[in-house]
Amino acid sequence: MTIRVLLADDQALLRSAFRVLVDSEPDMEVVGEAADGAEAARLAVERRADVVLMDIRMPGTDGLAATRMISADPSLAHVRVVILTTFEVDDYVVQSLRAGASGFLGKGSEPEELLSAIRVAAGGEALLSPTATKGLIARFLAQQDTADQERDPARAERLESLTVREREVLVQVAGGHSNDEIAERLEVSPLTVKTHVNRAMAKLGARDRAQLVVVAYESGLVRPRVE
């Protein structure tokens, strides 16, 4: 299947560069370009995009708002948003992950990294640069008022539906580990880990692994550590 990619960036030159790169691959194609978030959300529906490469800072409706719009639309449940940012340590990135983005990628990344990110997101694995994403979330959550987080019972209640093993797997996912690594750590098969991950996602209403990481930190299951 061909991966249908939507480009959302207010800089036409960057969109052109991304289009040339994406269209050069036999398994993907650019199906549209947007200069602002509102247009991106509209085109995601019209062009039946699989992956949206979303710039955070755009005039009018920014990438954060657009990500929320896409994530809130049931008809776009299959769409994966990959945030493109100049600065990988960016509070907006964390907010975007909370809003439903599948991960982030620095604009300075190598072309191969961008293409790989598109394929990973389209395949549903969705957590890009696991260690970096985990560290980013932890850093900003550590700057917030932990007491306020703990006073929100909804976050803790969401975990009550998980089995003991699903919680163990969630902790490992929040640590940025792959299914194979988790399987080795817990001495189970990768297929078993995948099953637990999928069940945890369903119970917690998470779109992908990136969302599981956010839930793990916001619920207090995993405590932020700033190095």
TrEMBL record:
The modification 4-aspartylphosphate is found at D55. Pfam families: GerE (PF00196), Response_reg (PF00072). Keywords: DNA-binding, Phosphoprotein, Transcription, Transcription regulation. The keyword DNA repair does not apply. The keyword Metal-binding does not apply. PROSITE patterns: HTH_LUXR_1 (PS00622), HTH_LUXR_2 (PS50043), RESPONSE_REGULATORY (PS50110). Residues 4-122 form the Response regulatory domain. SMART domains: HTH_LUXR, REC. It comes from the Bacteria. Residues 155-220 form the HTH luxR-type domain. Gene3D superfamilies: 3.40.50.2300. This is Response regulator transcription factor. The lineage of its organism: Bacteria, Bacillati, Actinomycetota, Actinomycetes, Kitasatosporales.
